[in-house]
Amino acid sequence: MAVKLEEQLLEILACPCPEHAPLQVGTPTDPEADFLTCTACGRSFPVRDGIPVLLLDEAVAPPSAV
Question: What is the mean pLDDT of the chain?
Answer without folding.
Answer: 90
